[in-house]
Design goal:
five-stranded mixed sheet
């Protein structure tokens, strides 16, 4: 299946494919159907942290998010839901944006979800990255290339020797 053509004409629309999701959400996000997502820009102070957010962010984590935003920009919109702009995913990015003094942050409205869908999505979104594995050989190559380019990634504290079972170095 070919992806639709995406143009950057200022519309702020993205397309999201639910292929493989395995579940139909109220007939809107069926397998193979693209959903138009509109990016809106809101003040990070207008966003309401979800009171039952299952993820905790420590100061070091927020510092890492701030460094990423400063180095490469704010590339991952915050998912918000409802009239109170409840954060579904992106609590750490909101805190980092506030600490950086950002006036606006990119957000994606998730108002088409039910409350149960919002809760499910938040947990799945946060858990999915934890369930994947690193390809340590490729990670070492990428980190070495970035080091040669003068990009310091030491704040991420990769200990490839410990992670990979030996034969590598601490980056």
């Amino acid at each position: 299946m070919a992806l639709p053509s995406l143009r950057s004409g200022g519309s702020g629309l993205l397309f999201f494919c639910m292929a493989g999701a395995g579940r139909i959400f109220e007939g809107r996000a069926k397998e193979g159907i693209y959903m138009a997502l509109e990016i809106v820009y809101l003040s990070p102070h207008e966003l309401t942290p979800y009171e039952n957010n299952t993820r905790k962010h420590n100061p070091g984590d927020i510092d890492g998010i701030k460094k990423s935003i400063q180095d490469v920009g704010f590339r991952d919109p915050i998912g918000v839901w409802g009239k109170q702009n409840i954060i579904v995913e992106g609590h750490g990015r909101q805190l980092a944006a506030i600490e950086l003094g950002m006036e606006k942050v990119p957000c994606i409205r998730l108002d088409d979800m039910t409350e149960d869908q919002r809760k499910e999505y938040a947990i799945r979104h946060n858990r999915s990255a934890e369930m994947s594995e690193w390809d340590f050989g490729k990670l070492e190559e990428e980190l070495a290339a970035l080091d040669i380019a003068g990009i310091d990634m030491s704040d991420l504290k990769f200990d490839l020797d410990a992670l990979n079972g030996g034969g590598c170095c601490r980056i």
